[in-house]
Specification:
Number of helices: 16
Structural class: alpha+beta
CATH topology of the largest domain: Alpha-Beta Plaits
Number of strands: 15
Number of domains: 3
Strand content: 15-25%
Helix content: 25-40%
CATH architecture of the largest domain: 2-Layer Sandwich
CATH class of the largest domain: Alpha Beta
CATH superfamily of the largest domain: Reverse transcriptase/Diguanylate cyclase domain
Shape: globular
Largest sheet: 5 strands, mixed
Radius of gyration: 26 Å
């Protein structure tokens, strides 16, 4: 008898469990999960139609790079996201490797989010290519499934991106339904058939079932969801603790987690892995300066302030250490760079080869630039405003401190005979910017010169 045919009959009764009974007594929900198929690859193909049908790997091109996304053409060779780039290129040597354009991915993701947000009551922005919709109660006006299907068609029509969709009674089952619908398709799980739908699937397809969890369950003889559904919840709690109960609930198609509306980020950060481990303190400081400079610009562009700086180091033996410091709210380059350098110096005491460094800014709040009455001058704040206008108009890396030119991952500056810094097209950077500024094209209103917000302590 085929394996799947064993689950065609009516589903078994729910196991006895107080939490499960409480969930079953709640009003039914209608949850939709949307996933942009091979999102990064799809964006690259929109930018260049010649890439259609070509096996593509997107991610770092160094020996230590990781696959961020891959096309379906490469997956038949065993390639998947998160795999080391070196291994992926061995499995699929004919694949084209693209570093990727994260800003383009963000722009397309925002476009999709705006289209969906204007049509649904509750939207959760789960990731750059993943969304949850709560359509509970909309059946009184029109069918939820028809609405979701039409919305999917509209998004694909207006963006050109492939999109898969799943609809079910909870987030976990909707996400699994989307996975089963791929590529570029949709699937509805009728109310009451959720457990029967999950039963023949592998446990690894449940959200939250990672590699180590699946390995442990396999040792327990649990390979398919059907076995997990029959397993006493106490056995899962003994093996995995509270996460074991959560996974058991998902196997019963009972995921009470709500769809959380989109909210602003509370933290921004960046990190970089080196092609070769290093102990070059000067270069590490330069890279840290570059990272903080870019993050501080992001804060000012979004009119936000930070109150906590965290620095991260990963050594060659993969030991990872972090150190953070609470600070007065600020978005100033100099203050954040000074603090990050001090944290790095306190953190780096083992004198081992460094594999990765990172920095993050957290405790973000809306606010204007905070000036220090003792250290900040009119010239200093005017310079900061001018560099921000240049970055917004010509790109985040159009202007940077000279010290960051020696950072890892940066090309050394090219200088003309007159000592003028040149860009990749051998054009003077400053002259090029001045020429475009003099062309008469107006700046964006929020970038025009304006008084900085001063925050003075009250007497």
């Amino acid at each position: 008898m085929p394996f799947h045919s064993k689950f065609n009959s009516a589903p078994e009764a729910l196991p006895a469990d107080a939490q499960l009974e409480d969930y079953a007594a709640q009003a039914p929900r209608t949850i939709v999960h949307m996933d942009l198929d091979t999102f990064f690859v799809s964006v690259e193909r929109l930018k260049d139609a010649r890439l259609k049908g070509v096996p593509i790997l997107i991610g770092g091109q160094s020996e230590r790079g990781v696959v961020a996304s891959c096309s379906y053409e490469t997956r038949q060779f065993g390639v998947h996201a998160g795999m080391p780039m070196r291994q992926a290129r061995q499995l699929c040597p004919e694949a084209l490797v693209i570093r990727g354009d994260y800003q383009a991915y963000v722009d397309y993701s925002d476009q999709v989010r705006r289209l969906v947000a204007e049509s649904v009551p509750v939207l959760e922005f789960a990731s750059i290519d993943e969304f949850y919709l709560d359509l509970t109660g909309m059946d009184r006006f029109f069918g939820c499934w028809q609405f979701a299907s039409e919305l999917r068609a509209r998004v694909m029509r207006e963006t050109g991106l492939p999109l898969s969709l799943g609809q079910a009674n909870c987030k976990a089952v909707a996400k699994v339904a989307t996975g089963e619908a791929k590529p570029c398709n949709e699937r509805q799980i009728e109310r009451g058939s959720e457990r029967a739908f999950l039963a023949p699937l592998a446990v690894r397809k449940l959200p939250g079932a990672g590699e180590q969890t699946c390995l442990l369950l396999r040792r327990m003889g649990v390979i398919h969801v059907h076995t997990l559904q029959r397993l006493p919840v106490r056995a899962m709690e003994d093996a995995l603790g509270q996460p074991g109960r959560a996974l058991w609930m998902k196997a019963q198609a009972a995921d009470p987690s709500p769809v959380v509306p989109y909210s602003e980020r509370k933290q921004i950060g960046t990190e970089e892995t080196f092609e070769q481990d290093t102990t070059d303190i000067v270069a590490l400081h330069a890279l840290l300066t570059r990272m903080v400079e870019q993050l501080a610009y992001q804060l000012r562009a979004s009119e936000r302030l930070t109150a906590c700086v965290t620095v991260k180091i990963r050594y060659a033996n993969f030991d990872t250490e972090t150190k953070q410091q609470r600070i007065p709210y600020t978005a100033q380059d100099d203050a954040l760079i000074s603090i990050s350098h001090a944290l790095f110096d306190k953190l780096y005491q083992r004198r081992m080869l460094v594999r990765l460094i990172g920095v993050s800014l957290s405790h973000l709040v809306p606010g204007g630039v905070q000036l220090n009455l003792l250290t900040d001058t009119v010239e200093k704040t005017a310079l900061l405003a001018a560099t921000d206008r240049i970055r917004h108009r010509f790109g985040a890396e159009a202007i940077q401190r000279a010290v960051t030119m020696n950072a890892y991952g940066r090309q050394r500056p090219v200088v003309s005979r007159r000592g003028v810094l040149l860009n990749a097209e051998q054009q003077p950077v400053i002259i090029q910017a001045q020429a475009k500024q003099a062309s008469g094209r107006p700046n964006a209103p929020w970038l025009r010169p304006k008084p900085w917000k001063h925050h003075y302590p009250h007497n």
